[in-house]
# Entry
Amino acid sequence: MTKIALITGANKGIGFETARQLAQSGGVHVLLASRDRAKGVDAALKLQGEGLDVEALTLDVTDASSISDAAKEVGRKFGHLDILINNAGVAIQDGSKTVSEQP
Ligand SMILES: NC(=O)c1ccc[n+]([C@@H]2O[C@H](COP(=O)([O-])OP(=O)(O)OC[C@H]3O[C@@H](n4cnc5c(N)ncnc54)[C@H](OP(=O)(O)O)[C@@H]3O)[C@@H](O)[C@H]2O)c1
# Structure
């Protein structure tokens, strides 16, 4: 049975490549989530062009209503989620501190 996977921040970078490789593994329908709908659609179209089972989903991880809307959409379309990859984020470093001292 096809598993349903959701990857946040997947329109570029590590999230995008994770979406590609997860879809390539087979048996997984990948929800490529992005905060910017247009960027997500572009990224999903690119992977669909490679023959992969990927669709765009809008989700801003800092916006509670966006998270709620995305969850409702997943529930309505699929009824469940098998895999969640919480990738979206930023790395904020203080250049004056060592790695172990970073807040
Ligand atoms: N690259 C590294 O060496 C490295 C090392 C350690 C950890 N990480 C972590 O791995 C993750 C991905 O890194 P990356 O290098 O692939 O970063 P990236 O290329 O900057 O991509 C970050 C992704 O997260 C999205 N994003 C940012 N804020 C968001 C929000 N509020 N809601 C939804 N999506 C949001 C971005 O969307 P937009 O395009 O709209 O900005 C983008 O799609 C991050 O959590 C990062 O901290 C990366």
